[in-house]
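User: Is it possible to get a 3D structure for a protein together with its bound compound? The compound here is manganese (II) ion. I've pasted both below.
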Amino acid sequence: MLCDETVMAVQTPSFDAITSLVEDAQTIAVCAHTSPDGDALGSELALVEMIERRWPKKDVVALLADDDEVPRIYQFLPGADRLVRAVDYHGTPDLFFCVDLSQPGRLSDAQAVLERSAHVAVLDHHPATERCWDAGVVRPDAAAAGVLVAEYALYVLGELTPTMAQNLLCALVTDTGRFQYQNANGEAFRVASALVDAGASPSDVALHVYQSDRLSYLHLSATVMGRITTFEQGRIAYSYATTADLESNAVPVAECDGLVDIVRRVDGCEIALFLKEVPGGKVRGNLRAKSARDISVVAREMGGGGHPAAAGFTVEGDIDQALAVVLPKLRALYAGDEAGS
Ligand code: 5GP
Ligand code: MN
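Assistant: Yes, that's possible. Here is the predicted structure of the complex:
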Protein backbone atom coordinates (compact mmCIF):
# COMPACT_ATOMS: atom_id res chain seq x y z
CA MET A 1 0.00 0.00 0.00
CA LEU A 2 1.38 3.37 -1.01
CA CYS A 3 -0.73 5.57 1.27
CA ASP A 4 -1.41 4.82 4.91
CA GLU A 5 -4.21 2.52 5.97
CA THR A 6 -6.53 5.18 7.34
CA VAL A 7 -6.24 7.20 4.13
CA MET A 8 -6.93 4.08 2.09
CA ALA A 9 -10.01 3.31 4.16
CA VAL A 10 -11.43 6.75 3.39
CA GLN A 11 -10.32 6.71 -0.24
CA THR A 12 -11.60 3.27 -1.20
CA PRO A 13 -15.35 4.03 -1.15
CA SER A 14 -14.69 7.13 -3.26
CA PHE A 15 -12.63 5.09 -5.72
CA ASP A 16 -15.56 2.64 -5.92
CA ALA A 17 -17.98 5.51 -6.58
CA ILE A 18 -15.72 6.80 -9.37
CA THR A 19 -15.57 3.31 -10.85
CA SER A 20 -19.38 3.09 -10.90
CA LEU A 21 -19.54 6.36 -12.82
CA VAL A 22 -16.94 5.11 -15.32
CA GLU A 23 -18.75 1.80 -15.75
CA ASP A 24 -22.07 3.57 -16.38
CA ALA A 25 -20.55 5.91 -18.96
CA GLN A 26 -19.84 5.19 -22.62
CA THR A 27 -18.17 8.49 -23.55
CA ILE A 28 -15.65 9.95 -21.12
CA ALA A 29 -13.77 13.26 -21.38
CA VAL A 30 -10.71 13.63 -19.16
CA CYS A 31 -9.30 17.11 -18.57
CA ALA A 32 -6.79 18.91 -16.34
CA HIS A 33 -6.40 22.59 -15.49
CA THR A 34 -5.65 25.59 -17.69
CA SER A 35 -1.92 26.31 -18.28
CA PRO A 36 -1.18 22.63 -17.72
CA ASP A 37 1.98 21.63 -15.87
CA GLY A 38 3.72 18.27 -15.58
CA ASP A 39 1.26 17.00 -12.99
CA ALA A 40 -1.79 18.08 -15.01
CA LEU A 41 -0.58 16.47 -18.23
CA GLY A 42 1.12 13.41 -16.76
CA SER A 43 -1.83 12.57 -14.51
CA GLU A 44 -4.35 13.07 -17.30
CA LEU A 45 -2.49 10.90 -19.81
CA ALA A 46 -1.93 8.13 -17.26
CA LEU A 47 -5.59 8.21 -16.24
CA VAL A 48 -6.75 7.99 -19.86
CA GLU A 49 -4.47 5.02 -20.51
CA MET A 50 -5.67 3.34 -17.34
CA ILE A 51 -9.36 3.75 -18.21
CA GLU A 52 -8.77 2.42 -21.73
CA ARG A 53 -6.85 -0.56 -20.44
CA ARG A 54 -9.39 -1.48 -17.81
CA TRP A 55 -12.46 -0.64 -19.96
CA PRO A 56 -11.34 -1.05 -23.61
CA LYS A 57 -14.83 -0.48 -25.05
CA LYS A 58 -15.21 3.03 -23.61
CA ASP A 59 -14.84 6.03 -25.83
CA VAL A 60 -12.26 8.22 -24.03
CA VAL A 61 -10.97 11.64 -25.06
CA ALA A 62 -8.04 13.49 -23.46
CA LEU A 63 -8.80 17.23 -23.48
CA LEU A 64 -6.63 20.32 -23.16
CA ALA A 65 -8.41 23.13 -21.32
CA ASP A 66 -6.80 25.88 -23.45
CA ASP A 67 -6.50 26.59 -27.13
CA ASP A 68 -2.70 26.15 -26.95
CA GLU A 69 -0.08 23.57 -27.85
CA VAL A 70 1.23 21.15 -25.25
CA PRO A 71 4.23 22.98 -23.67
CA ARG A 72 7.43 21.92 -25.46
CA ILE A 73 9.04 20.27 -22.43
CA TYR A 74 6.02 17.98 -21.95
CA GLN A 75 5.64 16.84 -25.53
CA PHE A 76 7.75 13.75 -24.74
CA LEU A 77 5.05 12.37 -22.43
CA PRO A 78 3.61 9.12 -23.80
CA GLY A 79 0.28 9.95 -25.45
CA ALA A 80 0.82 13.75 -25.57
CA ASP A 81 0.04 13.68 -29.29
CA ARG A 82 -3.51 12.50 -28.61
CA LEU A 83 -4.54 15.54 -26.54
CA VAL A 84 -7.47 17.41 -28.11
CA ARG A 85 -8.18 21.11 -27.48
CA ALA A 86 -11.53 21.55 -25.76
CA VAL A 87 -12.58 24.12 -28.41
CA ASP A 88 -12.21 21.38 -31.06
CA TYR A 89 -14.28 18.83 -29.14
CA HIS A 90 -18.02 18.89 -29.75
CA GLY A 91 -19.16 15.74 -27.94
CA THR A 92 -21.54 15.49 -25.01
CA PRO A 93 -19.79 13.08 -22.63
CA ASP A 94 -21.56 10.83 -20.17
CA LEU A 95 -18.73 11.52 -17.76
CA PHE A 96 -16.34 14.46 -17.37
CA PHE A 97 -13.26 13.44 -15.38
CA CYS A 98 -11.30 16.34 -13.82
CA VAL A 99 -7.75 15.57 -12.83
CA ASP A 100 -5.44 17.96 -10.93
CA LEU A 101 -8.32 20.36 -10.54
CA SER A 102 -11.65 20.51 -8.78
CA GLN A 103 -12.71 24.08 -9.63
CA PRO A 104 -14.67 24.51 -12.88
CA GLY A 105 -13.30 28.06 -13.10
CA ARG A 106 -9.86 26.64 -13.89
CA LEU A 107 -11.15 24.66 -16.90
CA SER A 108 -10.99 27.54 -19.38
CA ASP A 109 -12.58 26.38 -22.68
CA ALA A 110 -13.33 22.94 -21.22
CA GLN A 111 -15.83 24.38 -18.75
CA ALA A 112 -18.44 24.28 -21.53
CA VAL A 113 -17.74 20.55 -22.00
CA LEU A 114 -18.16 19.94 -18.27
CA GLU A 115 -21.45 21.83 -18.31
CA ARG A 116 -22.85 19.59 -21.03
CA SER A 117 -21.62 16.35 -19.41
CA ALA A 118 -24.03 14.12 -17.49
CA HIS A 119 -21.70 13.37 -14.55
CA VAL A 120 -18.44 14.64 -13.07
CA ALA A 121 -15.63 12.70 -11.36
CA VAL A 122 -12.54 14.24 -9.74
CA LEU A 123 -9.05 13.17 -8.67
CA ASP A 124 -7.31 16.21 -7.20
CA HIS A 125 -5.03 17.53 -4.50
CA HIS A 126 -5.96 21.24 -4.49
CA PRO A 127 -7.90 22.49 -1.48
CA ALA A 128 -11.48 22.56 -2.79
CA THR A 129 -14.02 25.14 -1.75
CA GLU A 130 -17.15 23.91 -3.49
CA ARG A 131 -18.03 20.37 -4.44
CA CYS A 132 -18.89 20.20 -8.16
CA TRP A 133 -18.51 16.44 -8.66
CA ASP A 134 -20.64 13.30 -8.25
CA ALA A 135 -17.72 11.17 -7.10
CA GLY A 136 -14.12 11.95 -6.36
CA VAL A 137 -11.07 12.08 -4.15
CA VAL A 138 -9.70 15.52 -3.27
CA ARG A 139 -6.80 15.12 -0.91
CA PRO A 140 -4.60 18.21 -0.39
CA ASP A 141 -1.90 16.23 1.44
CA ALA A 142 -1.19 14.21 -1.71
CA ALA A 143 1.99 15.64 -3.25
CA ALA A 144 0.58 15.49 -6.79
CA ALA A 145 -2.63 14.49 -8.50
CA GLY A 146 -0.38 11.78 -9.97
CA VAL A 147 -0.22 10.14 -6.53
CA LEU A 148 -3.99 9.71 -6.55
CA VAL A 149 -4.02 8.47 -10.15
CA ALA A 150 -1.31 5.91 -9.28
CA GLU A 151 -3.29 4.68 -6.27
CA TYR A 152 -6.53 4.53 -8.26
CA ALA A 153 -4.81 2.67 -11.11
CA LEU A 154 -3.33 0.11 -8.73
CA TYR A 155 -6.72 -0.27 -7.08
CA VAL A 156 -8.75 -0.86 -10.24
CA LEU A 157 -6.14 -2.28 -12.61
CA GLY A 158 -3.68 -3.91 -10.22
CA GLU A 159 -0.69 -2.74 -12.27
CA LEU A 160 1.03 0.26 -13.82
CA THR A 161 2.28 0.08 -17.41
CA PRO A 162 5.70 1.62 -18.21
CA THR A 163 4.00 4.48 -20.09
CA MET A 164 1.57 5.21 -17.25
CA ALA A 165 4.50 5.09 -14.85
CA GLN A 166 6.51 7.54 -16.96
CA ASN A 167 3.62 10.01 -17.09
CA LEU A 168 3.03 9.72 -13.37
CA LEU A 169 6.70 10.11 -12.49
CA CYS A 170 6.74 13.36 -14.47
CA ALA A 171 3.66 14.45 -12.49
CA LEU A 172 5.35 13.70 -9.19
CA VAL A 173 8.78 15.08 -10.03
CA THR A 174 7.40 18.40 -11.26
CA ASP A 175 4.83 18.99 -8.51
CA THR A 176 7.38 18.27 -5.78
CA GLY A 177 10.08 20.39 -7.47
CA ARG A 178 12.21 17.26 -7.89
CA PHE A 179 11.24 16.09 -4.39
CA GLN A 180 12.53 19.31 -2.84
CA TYR A 181 9.27 21.05 -1.80
CA GLN A 182 7.49 20.66 1.53
CA ASN A 183 4.92 18.32 -0.06
CA ALA A 184 7.53 15.61 -0.76
CA ASN A 185 6.28 13.19 1.91
CA GLY A 186 6.80 9.48 2.43
CA GLU A 187 3.84 8.63 0.22
CA ALA A 188 5.40 10.62 -2.66
CA PHE A 189 8.60 8.60 -2.37
CA ARG A 190 6.73 5.30 -2.09
CA VAL A 191 4.72 6.11 -5.22
CA ALA A 192 7.90 7.21 -7.03
CA SER A 193 9.59 3.96 -6.10
CA ALA A 194 6.62 1.95 -7.44
CA LEU A 195 6.70 4.00 -10.65
CA VAL A 196 10.40 3.37 -11.24
CA ASP A 197 9.86 -0.34 -10.56
CA ALA A 198 7.06 -0.24 -13.16
CA GLY A 199 9.41 1.16 -15.81
CA ALA A 200 9.51 4.96 -15.37
CA SER A 201 12.83 6.64 -16.07
CA PRO A 202 13.85 9.51 -13.74
CA SER A 203 16.74 10.47 -16.01
CA ASP A 204 14.44 10.71 -19.02
CA VAL A 205 12.02 12.96 -17.13
CA ALA A 206 14.94 15.13 -15.96
CA LEU A 207 16.41 15.26 -19.46
CA HIS A 208 13.22 16.62 -21.02
CA VAL A 209 11.96 18.80 -18.20
CA TYR A 210 15.13 20.21 -16.61
CA GLN A 211 17.95 19.81 -19.11
CA SER A 212 16.36 20.97 -22.35
CA ASP A 213 16.17 24.73 -21.84
CA ARG A 214 16.44 26.75 -25.00
CA LEU A 215 19.31 29.22 -24.95
CA SER A 216 16.86 32.11 -25.33
CA TYR A 217 15.07 30.92 -22.18
CA LEU A 218 18.36 30.88 -20.28
CA HIS A 219 19.02 34.44 -21.44
CA LEU A 220 15.57 35.47 -20.20
CA SER A 221 16.36 33.71 -16.90
CA ALA A 222 19.48 35.83 -16.61
CA THR A 223 17.35 38.99 -16.97
CA VAL A 224 14.89 37.71 -14.37
CA MET A 225 17.73 36.77 -12.02
CA GLY A 226 19.32 40.19 -12.45
CA ARG A 227 16.09 41.86 -11.35
CA ILE A 228 15.45 39.93 -8.15
CA THR A 229 14.59 42.35 -5.37
CA THR A 230 14.14 41.52 -1.71
CA PHE A 231 12.39 43.31 1.12
CA GLU A 232 11.04 42.63 4.63
CA GLN A 233 14.65 41.95 5.73
CA GLY A 234 15.18 39.66 2.75
CA ARG A 235 12.23 37.45 3.61
CA ILE A 236 10.26 38.33 0.47
CA ALA A 237 11.87 38.14 -2.98
CA TYR A 238 10.31 38.96 -6.32
CA SER A 239 11.14 39.35 -9.97
CA TYR A 240 9.22 39.69 -13.21
CA ALA A 241 9.21 39.46 -17.00
CA THR A 242 7.36 41.91 -19.25
CA THR A 243 5.87 41.17 -22.66
CA ALA A 244 8.86 43.03 -24.14
CA ASP A 245 11.27 40.67 -22.31
CA LEU A 246 9.43 37.62 -23.62
CA GLU A 247 9.33 39.00 -27.15
CA SER A 248 12.94 40.10 -27.30
CA ASN A 249 14.05 36.65 -26.13
CA ALA A 250 11.38 34.87 -28.25
CA VAL A 251 10.19 32.86 -25.24
CA PRO A 252 6.52 31.80 -25.20
CA VAL A 253 4.58 32.55 -22.02
CA ALA A 254 3.95 28.84 -21.48
CA GLU A 255 7.69 28.23 -21.10
CA CYS A 256 8.11 30.55 -18.12
CA ASP A 257 6.84 28.15 -15.45
CA GLY A 258 10.29 27.54 -13.96
CA LEU A 259 11.21 31.18 -13.41
CA VAL A 260 9.70 31.37 -9.93
CA ASP A 261 12.17 28.67 -8.90
CA ILE A 262 15.02 31.07 -9.68
CA VAL A 263 13.51 33.62 -7.30
CA ARG A 264 13.08 31.09 -4.50
CA ARG A 265 16.79 30.27 -4.58
CA VAL A 266 17.68 33.45 -2.66
CA ASP A 267 19.18 32.64 0.72
CA GLY A 268 16.89 33.69 3.58
CA CYS A 269 13.87 34.38 1.39
CA GLU A 270 10.71 32.80 2.73
CA ILE A 271 8.30 33.95 0.04
CA ALA A 272 9.07 34.07 -3.67
CA LEU A 273 6.95 35.92 -6.22
CA PHE A 274 7.36 35.88 -9.97
CA LEU A 275 5.16 38.01 -12.24
CA LYS A 276 4.87 37.89 -16.01
CA GLU A 277 2.73 39.80 -18.46
CA VAL A 278 0.44 37.51 -20.41
CA PRO A 279 -1.80 38.19 -23.44
CA GLY A 280 -5.00 40.14 -22.86
CA GLY A 281 -3.46 42.90 -20.72
CA LYS A 282 -3.08 40.59 -17.74
CA VAL A 283 -0.38 39.56 -15.31
CA ARG A 284 0.10 36.05 -14.06
CA GLY A 285 1.69 35.58 -10.63
CA ASN A 286 3.41 32.53 -9.18
CA LEU A 287 3.85 32.45 -5.41
CA ARG A 288 5.98 30.04 -3.43
CA ALA A 289 6.62 29.73 0.32
CA LYS A 290 9.80 28.25 1.72
CA SER A 291 8.55 28.52 5.31
CA ALA A 292 5.27 27.47 6.89
CA ARG A 293 3.62 30.79 5.94
CA ASP A 294 0.48 30.16 3.85
CA ILE A 295 0.74 32.20 0.64
CA SER A 296 -2.42 30.68 -0.88
CA VAL A 297 -4.32 33.24 1.24
CA VAL A 298 -2.73 36.02 -0.80
CA ALA A 299 -3.32 34.12 -4.08
CA ARG A 300 -7.01 33.83 -3.19
CA GLU A 301 -7.23 37.52 -2.31
CA MET A 302 -5.82 38.17 -5.78
CA GLY A 303 -8.57 36.01 -7.33
CA GLY A 304 -6.45 32.86 -7.71
CA GLY A 305 -5.72 29.91 -5.45
CA GLY A 306 -3.50 26.90 -4.87
CA HIS A 307 -1.70 25.23 -2.00
CA PRO A 308 -0.18 26.83 1.14
CA ALA A 309 3.34 26.63 -0.34
CA ALA A 310 2.58 26.98 -4.07
CA ALA A 311 -0.17 29.14 -5.45
CA GLY A 312 -0.94 31.41 -8.37
CA PHE A 313 -3.22 34.16 -9.65
CA THR A 314 -4.01 36.24 -12.72
CA VAL A 315 -4.93 39.93 -12.58
CA GLU A 316 -5.72 42.66 -15.09
CA GLY A 317 -3.06 45.31 -15.69
CA ASP A 318 0.71 45.53 -16.08
CA ILE A 319 3.57 44.49 -13.80
CA ASP A 320 3.63 47.79 -11.88
CA GLN A 321 -0.10 47.65 -11.21
CA ALA A 322 0.09 44.01 -10.08
CA LEU A 323 3.04 44.73 -7.80
CA ALA A 324 1.21 47.68 -6.25
CA VAL A 325 -1.57 45.33 -5.18
CA VAL A 326 0.28 42.16 -4.27
CA LEU A 327 3.36 43.48 -2.44
CA PRO A 328 1.37 45.10 0.41
CA LYS A 329 -0.56 41.84 0.83
CA LEU A 330 2.68 39.88 1.14
CA ARG A 331 4.04 42.43 3.60
CA ALA A 332 0.84 42.12 5.61
CA LEU A 333 1.69 38.46 6.23
CA TYR A 334 4.52 39.76 8.42
CA ALA A 335 2.50 42.44 10.19
CA GLY A 336 2.49 41.71 13.89
CA ASP A 337 5.67 39.61 13.69
CA GLU A 338 7.90 42.52 14.69
CA ALA A 339 6.11 43.05 18.00
CA GLY A 340 6.51 39.42 18.94
CA SER A 341 10.12 38.98 17.81
P1 5GP B 1 1.65 27.88 -10.52
O1 5GP B 1 2.21 29.05 -9.80
O2 5GP B 1 2.69 26.84 -10.78
O3 5GP B 1 0.89 28.25 -11.74
O4 5GP B 1 0.58 27.23 -9.54
C1 5GP B 1 0.92 26.78 -8.26
C2 5GP B 1 -0.24 26.01 -7.70
O5 5GP B 1 -1.36 26.87 -7.52
C3 5GP B 1 -0.73 24.90 -8.62
O6 5GP B 1 -1.16 23.84 -7.82
C4 5GP B 1 -1.87 25.53 -9.35
O7 5GP B 1 -2.77 24.56 -9.78
C5 5GP B 1 -2.45 26.48 -8.31
N1 5GP B 1 -2.97 27.67 -8.97
C6 5GP B 1 -2.28 28.52 -9.76
N2 5GP B 1 -3.05 29.52 -10.21
C7 5GP B 1 -4.27 29.33 -9.70
C8 5GP B 1 -5.51 30.03 -9.82
O8 5GP B 1 -5.63 31.05 -10.50
N3 5GP B 1 -6.57 29.49 -9.13
C9 5GP B 1 -6.45 28.37 -8.39
N4 5GP B 1 -7.54 27.92 -7.75
N5 5GP B 1 -5.30 27.69 -8.26
C10 5GP B 1 -4.22 28.15 -8.89
MN1 MN C 1 -0.86 19.22 -9.24
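The chain has a mean pLDDT of 95. The domain at 215-340 is CATH 3.10.310.30 (Diaminopimelate Epimerase; Chain A, domain 1).
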